[in-house]
Structures are given as structure tokens and as C-alpha cells.
Design a protein that fits this description.
Layout lengths: L2 H7 L6 E5 L4 E5 L19 E3 L2 E3 L27 E4 L1
Antiparallel strand pairs: 1-2, 1-5, 3-4
């Protein structure tokens, strides 16, 4: 998350946060970085693994509705999903 956004939401680097969309929610550790544009939340794909009772990262599939998809290929659009970020 962009530092300005984190400050305006009262969030800090390394803090546990909840990302909420129309489809669902996921918890993750917040990383505050200048590499994210203002208003943008970046969540890498390929995480959300649950192994021996511990969850590693956030599963973006849980944040995207199957109806929010490409009109030609019908694959879910994991980008440009409106969300809310809040402290856990």
C-alpha cells in the first residue's frame, strides 16, 4: 500500500489488515511501499496456502467474483477490484 494511503487509514507497515471486496475478505500483513500508487492495493497471486494449520499469504481468488470476468476469455479479473482495507 502507498504510504499516503496507509497514513490516511491509520495503518502501519507490518500490521495485520483485512482486505474486503464484494466477493469476500482476506487477512494479510500490510507492506507500506512507495512502489504502490496512491489508491492501489497490490496482492501477489499464488498465496493463501494453508499448511499444517498455518495460512501463508492471501488468496486473491476469494476476493474476486466469478461474474467479474473478461468478456472474451471468461477468466476472472483479479485486477481493478474495488476493496476496503481495515485493521484486524
Amino acid at each position: 500500500m502507498n504510504p499516503g494511503d496507509a497514513t490516511s487509514l491509520g495503518l502501519k507497515d507490518g500490521q495485520a489488515v483485512r482486505v474486503v471486496t464484494e466477493a469476500g475478505e482476506e487477512q494479510a500483513e500490510l507492506k507500506v511501499t512507495d512502489e504502490a500508487r496512491a489508491g492501489q492495493v497490490i496482492i501477489p497471486h499464488g498465496f493463501g496456502l494453508k499448511y499444517q494449520g498455518k495460512v501463508y499469504g492471501a488468496n486473491v481468488n476469494r476476493l474476486t467474483k466469478s461474474t467479474h470476468r473478461d468478456p472474451f476469455a471468461a477468466t476472472p479479473l483479479h485486477r481493478y477490484v474495488p476493496c476496503r482495507v481495515e485493521a484486524v
